[in-house]
Amino acid sequence: MGTPRDRPGFAPQTKAPDMAVQQNKVSKSRRNNRRAHDSLVAANPNECTNCGELKRPHHICAACGHYDDNEVVALTEEIDLEDDAA
Ligand SMILES: [Zn+2]
After folding, report:
1. Which residues fall inside 5 Å of ion ligand 1, going by CB?
2. What share of the chain has pLDDT > 70, as a percent?
3. Where are the domains of the chain?
4. Ligand 1 centre and the CA of 26: distance in Å?
């Protein structure tokens, strides 16, 4: 008792369902609680202290490879892929 199967007029499905059907209604409270963390947060870029380019906080500068005034990633000259130096 208590399940939909026990209600009068319940007919078992004779063919396979073609889509998923939720078992229980999601209340407005539960739905809104789920969506409480869905809002997007605006990016908050900082200026690189070395080159002034906007960069993500606590990340290496993509433009010059510096972090905290130290060169962490050395940037190379443009690599010529056409050159057959093998
Ligand atoms: Zn930089």
Report:
1. 48, 50-51, 53, 61, 63-64, 66
2. 77
3. 41-86
4. 48
